[in-house]
């Protein structure tokens, strides 16, 4: 179990700042959904958290240890990233890819130990991939691919999970199935999970807290009902929305409004 | 027993049998049972002294060199194909061959008679040239940022072109020595002796163990930069180790036998078709396949026009290609690729 803290984080390319003054603190068992318009810097922030990009200023801490002081291998033992795209041409089986999750834990030239194999089996079982274990990875569907990468992250046995648009390219059923799985893992195993999402309603339903990136800053971070307001969404996405209460879950439900239709937005209620 | 282990053991056994069989053939044919008797009993065997000299002084070092050079080229091919995520990569992709050619040309043109640890200038020159050019490519490719695959490839192509131009210029200016350089460029195992065996075997072993130790990381690297970094790979360190290991293998091979094409490109593909893409199996399997191709190629090269010899690179390409294509087609029809 680890806590993830960012302290006044900034990332800039040579000529432009992507984000600045990003400070947040995440506790074990917490799932944070990063929201923002295209180009707001969600993926860049996620990559900075994974130390794939070096922050221009500020620091990231795993518990009290600065991320920059960890070796790449030491970092991978504690933090797993699920990228948006991976090379699918490699001729490996599902089992091979999931077993790669043990890479940061294995010594040079050392074969997988009994413990490693047990962890891999657990990862395959908890993602329902047992039947697909011998299938070549270029023969699996988009949903199965996401599950496989999630299984690899589980096999990595990390306490922090970073997921870049885990539902991209999935149909509705698999989107919810994927998020439910991530939520269960996060809560059951007391992980810290940060994921980027485009669907605000899914974020409201699955995120313990949401963080909204706009104008190069984190303009809001907190429970869904505090972040998903008409004003903040207008500020972040330049669109008018109605926010109501989900009839079944009680979470905020965001409904975009077509500006060409003459509707009175003020008459729509806010969730209680 | 695991399927991969069985395939690897069969390939290893085939390599050993081929090596023993090729001891028997050449300009002078020695019965295979006499060869086996000599291997078991040494000087007390039924073989005549002349035959024993042929086996000990000529054929055994030559076949062992073929074995280590073939393995080294094949494993270097696996390394570069993995490093560049490109199935067309071969051991010479970042300038090792042009560097070796320049080293050999300079030795021939300048008439250097240097000798080090029993190795002649014709072995040391290509080795040094090969390592020097790869080093220059790596330094140029890394300027300003870490060495990305693309910058390495581009600087490799540019520097190779320049080095090849210098080789051509030197051949043009020294036309009476051009034939010596040209025959070296075609690759041959004729100059193998025990000092070459010792050096090529040590370098090949070191390089193969180094790359084999990185096999899990190479598997992860196949999935892309982001995925492999997330799995704990330091890309800069990984690329550097891969280049050092694969270049060491290439340099040892060009030093021992000149430039032999085809083996480093095709042996990894044959091994991949037989045993799959996981580098833990692919590396030893490629080593066996590379050794088999070169031992067989050399046996043919020194027998078909005996007592003269064909350049072994020509034989391996002429006979290996149809074999590879038939394997490729059968895998395609069976749906394995």
What percentage of residues of chain B falls in helices of 4 or more residues? over 70%
CATH fold naming of chain B: ABC transporter involved in vitamin B12 uptake, BtuC
Q: Mean pLDDT of chain B, as a whole number?
A: 85
CATH class annotation of chain A: Alpha Beta
Structure write-up:
- The complex is a heterodimer of chains A (272) and B (337).
- Chain A has 272 residues and is α/β, with parallel strands linked by helices.
- Chain A has a single domain, classed as P-loop containing nucleotide triphosphate hydrolases (Rossmann fold, 3-Layer(aba) Sandwich).
- In chain A, 31% of the residues lie in helices and 26% in strands.
- Chain B has a single domain (3-333), classed as ABC transporter involved in vitamin B12 uptake, BtuC (Orthogonal Bundle), CATH 1.10.3470.
- Chain B is 74% helix and 1% strand.
- Chain B is globular, with a radius of gyration of 20 Å.
- The relative contact order of chain B is 0.16.
- The model of chain B has no long low-confidence stretch (mean pLDDT 85).
- The interface between A and B is medium-sized, with 31 and 23 residues.
């Amino acid at each position: 179990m680890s806590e993830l803290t960012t302290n006044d984080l900034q990332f800039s390319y040579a000529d432009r700042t992507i984000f600045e003054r990003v400070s947040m603190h995440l506790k074990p068992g917490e799932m944070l959904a990063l929201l923002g318009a295209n180009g707001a810097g969600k993926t860049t922030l996620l990559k900075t958290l994974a130390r794939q990009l070096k922050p221009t200023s500020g620091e990231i801490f795993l518990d009290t240890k600065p991320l920059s002081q960890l070796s790449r291998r030491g970092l991978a033992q504690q933090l797993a990233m699920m990228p948006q795209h991976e090379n699918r041409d490699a001729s490996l089986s599902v089992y091979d890819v999931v077993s790669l999750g043990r890479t940061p834990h294995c010594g040079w030239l050392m074969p997988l130990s009994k413990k490693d194999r047990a962890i891999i089996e657990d990862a395959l079982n908890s993602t329902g991939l047992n039947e697909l274990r011998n299938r070549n990875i270029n023969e699996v569907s988009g949903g199965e691919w996401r599950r496989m990468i999630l299984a690899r992250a589980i096999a990595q046995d990390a306490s922090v999970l970073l997921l870049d648009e885990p539902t991209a390219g999935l149909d509705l059923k698999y989107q919810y199935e994927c998020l439910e799985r991530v939520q269960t893992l996060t809560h059951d195993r007391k992980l810290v999970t940060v994921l980027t999402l485009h669907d605000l309603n899914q974020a409201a339903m699955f995120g313990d807290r949401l963080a909204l990136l706009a104008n190069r800053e984190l303009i809001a971070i907190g429970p869904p009902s505090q972040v998903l307001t008409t004003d903040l969404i207008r500020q972040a996405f330049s669109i008018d929305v109605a926010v109501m209460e989900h009839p079944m879950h009680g979470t905020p439900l965001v409904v975009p409004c077509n500006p060409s239709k003459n509707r009175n937005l003020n008459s729509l209620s806010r969730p209680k | 027993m695991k399927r991969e282990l069985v395939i690897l053991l069969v390939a290893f056994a085939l390599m050993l049998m081929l090596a023993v069989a090729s001891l028997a053939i050449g300009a002078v044919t020695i019965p295979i049972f006499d060869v086996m008797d000599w291997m078991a009993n040494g000087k007390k065997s039924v073989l005549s002294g002349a035959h024993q000299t042929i086996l000990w002084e000529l054929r055994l070092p030559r076949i062992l060199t073929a074995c280590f050079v073939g393995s080294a080229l094949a494993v270097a091919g696996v390394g570069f194909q993995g490093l560049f995520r490109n199935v067309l990569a071969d051991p010479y992709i970042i300038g090792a061959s042009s560097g070796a050619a320049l080293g050999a040309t300079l030795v021939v043109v300048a008439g250097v008679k240097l000798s080090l640890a029993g190795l002649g200038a014709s072995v040391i020159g290509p080795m040094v040239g090969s390592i020097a050019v790869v080093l220059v490519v790596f330094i140029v490719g890394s300027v300003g940022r870490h060495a990305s695959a693309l910058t390495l490839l581009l600087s490799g192509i540019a520097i190779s072109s320049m080095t090849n131009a210098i080789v051509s210029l030197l051949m043009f200016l020294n036309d009476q020595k051009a034939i010596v350089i040209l025959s070296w460029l075609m690759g041959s195992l004729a100059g193998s002796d025990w000092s070459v065996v010792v050096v090529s075997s040590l370098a090949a072993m070191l390089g193969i163990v180094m790359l084999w130790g990185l096999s899990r990381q190479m598997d992860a690297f196949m999935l892309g930069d982001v995925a492999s970094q997330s799995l704990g790979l330091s890309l800069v360190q990984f690329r550097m180790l891969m280049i050092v290991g694969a270049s060491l293998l290439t340099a040892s091979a060009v030093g021992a036998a000149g430039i032999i094409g085809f083996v480093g490109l095709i042996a990894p593909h044959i091994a991949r078709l037989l045993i799959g893409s996981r580098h833990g199996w692919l590396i030893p399997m490629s080593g066996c396949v590379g050794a088999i191709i070169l031992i067989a190629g050399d046996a043919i090269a020194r027998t078909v026009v005996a007592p003269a010899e064909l350049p072994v690179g020509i034989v391996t390409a002429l006979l290996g290609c149809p074999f590879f294509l038939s394997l490729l087609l059968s895998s395609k029809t069976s749906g394995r690729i």
